[in-house]
Amino acid sequence: MRNSLTILLVLWLSWANGQEQAYKFTLDQAVEFALENNYNAINAGRDLRDAEKQKWETIATGLPQISGDISYQNQLKQQVSLIPAEFGGGEPGTFIPIVFGQPQTARATATLKQQLFDGSYIVGIQAAKTFLKYSQNNKEKTDLEIRKSIVEAYGNVLLAQESISILNKNKANLEQNLMETQKLYENGLGEEESVEQLQITLSSIDNQLKNSVRLQEITLQMLNLMLGLDINTPTQLMENLNDLAQQQIRPDLLETDFVLDNNVDFKIATNLFQQRELELKLQKSMALPTLNAFINYGSTAYSDSFNFLSKEADWFDASVVGVDLHIPIFSSLGRSAKTQRAKIAVDKAKTQLLETQQNLNLQYKTAKSNYLFSIEEYTTAKENLGLAERIERKNQIKYEEGLASSFELRQAQTQLYNAQQEYLQSMVEVINKKTELEAVLNVKL
User: Fold this and answer.
1) Which of 30, 137, 153, 397 has the smallest CB count inside 10 Å?
2) How buried is 69 (Cβ within 10 angstroms: 0-12 exposed, 13-18 middle, 19+ buried)?
């Protein structure tokens, strides 16, 4: 018995581990999850860490640098030198071949270098800090785009779900109407055209329902992709479209002032302008002298055979300290041309910054107008849906009493179905347009 329970427990655990983890999200939870797990968010975070490392890499070039060198040489054929023969008592005017030194040499050297002054280093530090700010702003922009994508994907899933719910109700009502009309026709109390009209409407609704079911799966997979999940992961949304749309109607957002410096696109454009200015400073710094100091310590050994690792080897120490001063004097106007090109790039970046400023002001006004229009359209669509429902209900009663034709009923039904879809779409538009305005303002309400 005990063994049987153990086996059942193991089988149950194996089955449980094999099931895919299901996720449940409100809209805010989905956004927070995506900011951590979305593929673009992950890489944007890596870019930011890379910029931080790049900043330190630039700083480190101006700090003390220590390098070591070890070399070994074995002269297979030593260089021969000639000395006057008379030094050894030979005949004047003749020479004696002689080899100086021993064929094998080993050398170990350590060098400490320190940059004392380099104008390009100072500019490089400033450029690294600017690039880090650019990377931070780019991460912020990526997060805003991810939030916008999640809101749109979340809304599309809810739209598909609500469409399925409404279309199922419409289909059920039509099937009931068709069945009743079919019986009336079979009993000689109705016309065949009435049956055909309802069949046409039912076929159209049935096709829309099938398409909405397919769209629900596709939009859910798109949301999973935006979340950074496998597209087939079971995901459940915890909000409905109507409640979410009501939450997104915020008149106070329309009263929020547009602060240009808060807009992430303006921040990035400013970063690019600052980079062009630093490139100009860099070219100007190329005309300044550079000064470096160094100290060297080394030891050398000579031998006829390789015995440098033994205690008998004699090592001779040497050390040097000094400074290097490099002074640019004349470059045939090459540096001047580079400086002028950098100045042109600064002027272009300034113009682009002004253009960005104007575009963003226009973008804010457009986003504000679109958000206000979406709220107005939502209110109108809601009222129109109520009217369409009453009109359809009246025509349904008239049709049952023989006071309205099947064509009139079909017109009322089609008008109702269009009003339903317009109402659903208006709710999605409210959600999306609010997110667009928040992105321009760089706020979240």
Assistant:
1) 397
2) exposed
Q: What stretches of 262-327 show up as alpha helix (H) in DSSP? A: 264-285
Tokens of 145: 């785009």
The answer to whether the beta carbons of residues 154 and 29 sit under 8 Å apart is no
pLDDT grade for 4, boundaries at 50, 70 and 90: low
Q: Tens digits of per-residue pLDDT, 130-164?
A: 999 999 999 999 999 999 999 999 999 999 999 99
21-62+118-288+332-441 homologous superfamily: Outer membrane efflux proteins (OEP) (1.20.1600.10)
Whole-number Å distance between alpha carbons of 198 and 175? 8
Sign of CA dihedral 332, 336, 340, 346: positive
Domain parsing of the chain, residue ranges = 21-62+118-288+332-441, 64-117+291-327
pLDDT digits (tens, 9 = 90+) for 266-324: 999 999 999 999 999 988 888 889 999 999 999 999 888 888 888 778 888 999 999 99
Query: What single string gives the DSSP state of each residue in 8-61?
Result: HHHHHHHHHHHSPPPEEE-HHHHHHHHHHH-HHHHHHHHHHHHHHHHHHHHHHT
The DSSP bridge partners found for residue 320 are: 296
Q: Which residues pair with 293 in a beta bridge?
A: 114, 323
